[in-house]
C-alpha cells in the first residue's frame, strides 16, 4: 500500500515495551489514541504477561494488533545491529509472531501485521539478505500477514515478491535524510523533540506525502501508516495532539485496509 498523499491514515505506536516490573510505554492511554499497536514480542522488550495485557486492552478498544519483531537484544532495546544468520533470523521472526498470536487470539483479535523494530527495521531498508529473512519468517509463521516498513525499502520489495501485502510507513517524530531514510539515532537531531514540529510534520505527511529532511529539502514519504514512538517523553499528550491536528485538517484516522 504505497500512497503519496492521503485523506485517511493509520496511526501506530510501539507498545508493550517493558519487562517484569519495568515499564516504558503508557499502553493504556496510548491505546485510546492509536488505531494500530506494534506490540513488543519479547526480544527487545515485552514478556508474556505484558503481551497478554496489551493484546487484551487493544482488542477491547478495537485497536489492530501488530507483531513488532526484533533482534534478540533485551540489553540494547533492539537498537544494536546484529549479523544474525538468515535461517536463524527467519526462525526468530516466526517465533515472535507465534508468541504474540497466542495472546492476540485469546483476546479475540488476531495479529494483523508485522513490523520490524529498531536496528532490524533500519537494517532491512538496505540489506537484501536480512530483508529476505524477515519475509521468510513471516511466511514461516503461516499467516500471510501484511508487512509494515519504509517506502522503497528492501523489506517491502521482498514482501511484495513473496505475495505479502505491504504498508508504507512514515515517522512524524524522526528526522529524515535527503534520501528519505531515517537519520541514524546516534546523530544529533535524529529524534524530533519539539511537539509543535512533530504535529506539523504529521499533518504534512498525511496531506502532502512529504516532509522536510535534515538538509532542508522536502522529500516524499507517502505512507499508509504514521508512527509515533511510545517511549518518547510526553508520548500520550503528543499522540493526542497529532490525532486532533490530523482530524482538524480533514484527515480520517483509521486502521489501514
UniProtKB/TrEMBL annotation:
It catalyses: 5-oxo-L-proline + ATP + 2 H2O = L-glutamate + ADP + phosphate + H(+). Transmembrane segments: none annotated. Gene3D superfamilies: Glycoside hydrolase/deacetylase. It is an enzyme of class 3 (hydrolase). InterPro entries: Glyco_hydro/deAcase_b/a-brl, LamB/YcsF/PxpA-like. The keyword Phosphoprotein does not apply. Its EC number is 3.5.2.9. Keywords: ATP-binding, Hydrolase, Nucleotide-binding. Belongs to the LamB/PxpA family. Forms a complex composed of PxpA, PxpB and PxpC. Catalyzes the cleavage of 5-oxoproline to form L-glutamate coupled to the hydrolysis of ATP to ADP and inorganic phosphate. This is 5-oxoprolinase subunit A. It comes from Streptomyces xanthochromogenes. The gene is pxpA.
Amino acid at each position: 500500500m504505497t500512497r503519496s498523499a492521503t485523506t485517511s491514515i493509520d496511526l501506530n505506536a510501539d507498545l508493550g515495551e517493558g519487562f517484569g516490573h519495568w515499564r516504558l510505554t503508557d499502553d493504556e492511554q496510548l491505546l485510546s489514541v492509536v488505531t494500530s499497536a506494534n506490540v513488543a514480542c519479547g526480544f527487545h522488550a515485552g514478556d508474556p504477561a505484558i503481551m497478554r495485557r496489551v493484546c487484551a486492552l487493544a482488542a477491547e478498544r478495537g485497536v489492530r494488533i501488530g507483531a513488532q519483531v526484533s533482534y534478540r537484544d533485551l540489553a540494547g532495546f533492539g537498537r544494536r545491529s546484529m549479523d544474525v544468520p538468515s535461517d536463524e533470523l527467519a526462525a526468530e521472526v516466526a517465533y515472535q509472531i507465534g508468541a504474540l498470536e497466542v495472546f492476540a487470539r485469546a483476546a479475540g483479535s488476531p495479529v494483523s501485521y508485522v513490523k520490524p523494530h529498531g536496528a532490524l527495521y533500519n537494517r532491512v531498508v538496505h540489506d537484501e539478505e536480512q530483508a529476505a529473512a524477515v519475509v521468510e519468517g513471516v511466511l514461516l509463521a503461516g499467516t500471510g500477514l501484511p508487512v509494515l516498513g519504509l517506502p522503497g525499502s528492501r523489506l517491502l520489495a521482498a514482501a511484495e515478491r513473496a505475495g505479502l501485502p505491504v504498508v508504507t510507513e512514515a515517522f512524524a517524530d524522526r528526522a529524515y535524510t535527503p534520501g528519505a531514510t531515517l537519520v541514524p539515532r546516534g546523530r544529533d537531531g535524529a529524534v524530533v523533540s519539539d511537539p509543535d514540529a512533530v504535529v506539523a510534520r504529521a499533518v504534512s505527511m498525511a496531506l502532502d506525502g512529504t516532509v522536510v529532511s535534515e538538509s532542508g529539502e522536502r522529500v516524499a514519504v507517502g505512507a499508509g501508516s504514521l508512527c509515533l514512538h511510545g517511549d518518547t517523553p510526553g508520548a500520550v499528550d503528543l499522540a493526542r495532539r497529532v490525532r486532533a491536528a490530523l482530524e482538524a485538517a480533514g484527515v480520517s484516522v483509521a486502521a489501514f485496509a
